[in-house]
Every structure is written in C-alpha cells, then in structure tokens.
Write a structure and sequence with these properties.
6-stranded mixed β-sheet, 6 strands, 56% helix
Length: 341
C-alpha cells in the first residue's frame, strides 16, 4: 500500500502545528529566563558596588575580573561590554515587571544605547507593538523615527513627546501615519542621481516589504498604476495601499522633483473618484500622500488650502538623515515653546 494513503495531509499539518507551538513556547520561556537572569546579575553588581562604595576606577577593574571569571565558566556571553549592559539594564529597569518578555536581550542592548528615557521608551513600545526585529529596530533608530514623527505631526510639544513615550505611535487620525521625511535608503540610489518616477515606483515595488515598514503600521499593498476613469479618460494612481487601522485607502503619488500645485489637484480628483466609486460602506474617506524631493511650505499651504479631502505632502530622501540635525530641530522647537510659556 502507498505510504501516502496511510497518512493524511491534515494529520501532518496538525503535528506540525503542535511542534511549532512547542518550539515557540520553549523559545519564549528561554528568553524570559535569560532576561530575568541578566536583570538579577545587574542587581548583584549594583548592590555590590553600593555596599563597597567603590571608586569608578575600581568598579571598572571589578567588571574586568568578573568578566574573566564568568567567561571561563560560562562562555563569551559575559564580555565586559555585555556585563556593563546587564548593570545598566538593572539601573534603567529597576522594577523587573516593566521588562517586556516580547523583546530579546539583543533588543534591550540596542535600546540601552539610547540615553534619552522618552525616546528609549518610544522605541521599546514600537518594538512590542510592531514586532520589530533587532535589525528593524536599529534601522528605525538610525533613521531617527522618533524625531521624524515629532516634526511631521505639527504638534512638537512635551505632550506629544510624552504621548509617543507612553503609547508609541498610535494611529487614530490620518495625520498619525505621516513622516517627514520618508527615508528610502534601502533602495541604494545615490542622492544626486536623477531618477524617473516610473523607475522610483519599480524600485519601491522591488523592496515592497521594506517600503511597507517605512510607511508604518496597518498598511496593506493594493497595487501600482491603479486605473481611475473620469469622463471617459483613463488616469493611473502611482501606488495604492489600504490602512486597516484607519480603514482608508491611501493613494500615493511619486514626484521626483519639487511639489507643484497641479499634483495636488490631480490627486484630489483621484480621491473623489475613490470616495464615490471604490469605497465600501464601512470605509473611511481615502487619504492622499504626495512624496516629493522638496516642498515649499508656502506653496503647500496654498496648494492644499480649501481642499476637503485629506492630502499630505512629504519629502523623501535616499540617505539616512543626519540624526544630530533632526534632534537639534526638535530641541529648537521645544525650546521656543518653553520660552513662550
């Protein structure tokens, strides 16, 4: 008898699910135990320092000796750098229950490199909420997501900083999905190289997974060059997405030059079409985003003024923005607000 007739596909599928769940459970338990152990090691080190009232130089020497002893018995996971992270892990998370077992030790090592507590808390919340890998966390930190969200929200104040720190980036309004600038460094296109809009679209499509991560939470890809027929004339939207959190279609137009008012009028027509012809009863009004290489605030104000549809214009860049510049911009706005108060 054929062996394949003795065992059904459903039987194999059920066994695979059992094994997968068991492995995930083991990984979760190991990770939880590891985080608890490293937190306890950090506590022992800090309490030892406090009891002995050690000088900083003596403390460094203690960590060096401790590292050698532990590496001899337990392996390379106890380098001086890693032990220093354990010490800081305890100092920054002295209430053990605030440590999320959804994150790994590698996540926390990246997070502990951030000195600003609000910023660190934001990235921690986003890691948990969005399920970022360590690599994606590093990329979002390098691209200054925290500062970009603050600058693009139009609400750079201490309340907005606190909101991001305590909740992460909550998506409740169309404005919440916006970033300025968007960062497309994953395309590998030199900043000075001229690119056709059709080539930019193809490049984003080839890196769709990374583009979706840059767009943010809730985005699902619908298609490119989606046809819109107005007065028996066919037009085509560059890229269409659906945001399941906002329950809205998001229409994106790509411009490889400075924003022009005509682009706003064109996108506005597309949004009207989607609102009438495409939206289902439970869909919210569609959202339009124009991604351009540059925009003038006055031009944007005049171009978007008086339009009922929700349209945003944002710059994009092919390189990681200068982190210090973005941090300085945020601090300048917050400083100006404090002076007024």
């Amino acid at each position: 008898m054929d062996e394949r007739n003795l065992i059904s596909d459903s039987m194999i599928s059920e066994i695979k699910q059992i094994l997968s769940e068991a492995r995930n459970h083991v990984v979760h338990e190991v990770n939880s135990a590891l985080l608890q152990s490293y937190w306890e090691i950090g506590r022992v080190i800090v309490e030892h320092e406090q009891d002995n009232n050690e000088r900083a130089e003596y403390g460094k020497q203690t960590l060096l000796v401790l590292s050698k002893r532990l590496m001899h018995e337990f392996g390379k996971g106890f380098s001086v750098a890693n032990i220093q992270f354990m010490r800081r892990f305890y100092l920054e998370y002295q209430i053990q229950q605030t440590v999320s077992v959804k994150l790994t030790w590698s996540h926390y090592c990246e997070l502990l490199s951030i000195s600003d507590k609000d910023k660190r808390s934001f990235y921690e919340k986003e890691c948990v909420n969005s399920g970022w890998s360590v690599r994606e966390l590093r990329r979002q930190m390098d691209s200054s997501l925290f500062e970009r969200l603050l600058l693009s929200s139009g609400k750079v104040n201490k309340e907005k900083v606190l909101e991001l720190a305590t909740k992460g980036n909550e998506i409740t309004t169309p404005q919440d999905i916006m970033k300025d600038p968007y960062v497309f460094e994953f395309l590998g296109i030199p900043e000075e190289k001229p690119v056709l809009e059709s080539d930019l679209e193809k490049a984003l499509l080839l890196h769709l997974e990374k583009f979706l991560l840059e767009l943010g939470k809730g985005f699902m890809f619908v298609g490119t060059q989606q046809r819109v027929t107005i007065g028996n004339v066919h037009y085509y939207v560059d890229m269409v997405f659906y945001n399941k959190i906002l329950k809205s279609y998001v229409l994106i137009e790509l411009k490889t030059k400075k924003l022009m008012p005509a682009a706003v009028g064109q996108l506005n027509a597309y949004l009207n079409y989607y609102a009438i012809e495409v939206n289902e009863e439970d869909d919210n009004p569609p959202i339009g985003i124009i991604l351009c290489t540059d925009k003038d605030s006055t031009s944007v104000e005049y171009a978007l003024g008086g339009i009922n549809n929700t349209i945003f214009a944002s710059k994009y860049t092919y390189i990681i923005p200068d982190k210090d510049v973005l941090v300085a911009q945020v601090e300048a706005v917050l400083g100006a607000i404090e002076k007024k108060q």
